[in-house]
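WARN retry 2 of 3 for item q-0093 after timeout on previous attempt; input resubmitted unchanged.
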Amino acid sequence: MKDFSDAAFSPDVIELMTQALNGAVAALPEPVSSTHVTWLAESVLRTAKTGERDPTVMQRLALLELQLMPRV
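OK item q-0093 returned
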């Protein structure tokens, strides 16, 4: 996971981020790889760090970023 040591979030924002991540993971077909979960989590962290607080927006951006990731 990338370094997010300079990020700090209130408990309320962490709850919104958790909702976004859980929703994004639930939207993926089974089985969901740990790599995909990590990419989604990093996206949610980046988006929240920019000030976004809507979990639906964070979820959609994370899923969009996952679609755009190069296949390895």
